[in-house]
Amino acid sequence: MSPRHPSEAGKGTAGGRPISAGRQKFAGAGPPVTLSPQTGNPTKQSEIAGRGRRIDVTMLLSVRRRSAAMYFQVSHVTTYRYSRPVRLGPHWLRLRPRCDGGTELLRHELDIEPMPAGRSDVLDADGNLATRVWFLGETEKFTVRSRFEARTRLIDPYDYLAEAMPWGALYAPALARRLAPWIGAAAAPRGVLELAAQVRAGAADGLEFVHRLNADLHRRIDREIRDSGRAHRPEETLRRGRGACRDLAVLFAAVCRSQGIASRFASGYQQGRADTSTRYMHAWPEVYLPGGGWRGFDPTHGLAVADRHVAVAAAADPEDAAPIEGSYQGDSPSSLRAEVRIHVED
Fold first, then answer.
1. Scanning 98, 103, 155, 246, which has the fewest C-beta atoms within 10 Å of its C-beta?
2. DSSP secondary-structure letter at 182?
3. What is the pLDDT of residues 248-278, one digit of tens each?
4. What domain range is 290 assigned to?
5. What residue spans carry the region label Disordered (predicted)?
6. Residue 335 CB contacts under 8 Å (≥ 6 apart), including other chains
7. How many angstroms separate the CA atoms of 253 and 258, rounded?
């Protein structure tokens, strides 16, 4: 079996499953992201219009009415080093910002050393735009440089016509079949089911459940910075009462799925604080809402995702949203260094 690289999964962010020695996976939502509190309104009662009635849910909102889009400029450099020459296997690179209704990509550059023998832009199995690269010869260093400029325009995360999500019929049958990969059929751990029952007790329907869960996890789980490692299992995060953003994303998705609500893991970048010099990637869950499609929620900050996040990939499993994924051949351990710079303007 080809060796695998260590995971750059970490501090405040996303990470995938553990990486066996030598397999290279810029895991989960990739490199660690420093968890910086976003500015916004204090906790307040907010009313969400839906299906002809109003639902009161307590949550943190960070929605400011602005006439202009937010401008992101991001530089992300990842370097793997080897003590002896190795042969790089094919790699998946998921670093191009996702172009959806809320994000406009202005420019993206992807530089790779050593120069690949070939590269191709493809859609992976989850519909993410990825770059597939392959190599010839040996190397002692592998570097990926991603630079992009993007505008985010989703000022209001509730800019859609919500459809009903009554318990017992969350999705129309045809839609439920299409969403099966993100709902799953595995039995949820006891702790996940207990938390789901607590949240559901105060939720009139699936939509309110999602908002209440976002607020609950923000209050319940203390945020931590973890340099590396897999995302913790949902029950471990609940037991510890703290976790990195990748842990919160996995826990959120597990609770939603236990109630039949489609959820997936997203990786990308967040605005963060301008006075923070060390930056990383970030992770958050997305939920499929009838009438709204896939919508992001960030329990790390207690927010509905709007224009302060830029997604690069999403998948049912954190490992399948890894920004860099691949392997190498050779009897050599690998070390990992990443540098992320994020500049944001209103």
1. 155
2. H
3. 999 999 999 999 999 999 999 999 876 676 7
4. 24-345
5. 1-51
6. 6, 80, 81
7. 9
Is the separation of the CB atoms in 312 and 98 below 8 Å? Answer: yes
Given the DSSP bridges, would you call strands 222-223 and 242-243 parallel, antiparallel or unpaired? parallel
| Bond from prior residue into 318 cis (ω within 30 degrees of 0) | no
**Residue 238 resides in a domain:** yes
* Alpha carbon distance, N-terminus to C-terminus of the chain: 48
Cβ neighbours for 250, distance < 8 A, ≥ 6 positions apart: 231, 232, 233, 234, 237, 265, 318
Residue 66 is assigned to a structural domain of this protein: yes
pTM: 0.82
| Residue pLDDT, tens place only, 156-206 | 999 999 899 999 999 999 999 999 999 987 889 999 999 999 999 999 999
**How many domains does the chain divide into?**
1
HEC string for 223-279: ECCCCCCCCCCHHHHHHHCEECHHHHHHHHHHHHHHCCCCEEEEEEEECCCCCCCCE
| CATH code assigned at 240 | 3.10.620.30
If we measure between CA atoms, which residue out of 244, 259, 139, 174 comes closest to residue 210? 259
Q: Which residues on neighbouring strands pair with residue 85, listed in sequence order?
A: none
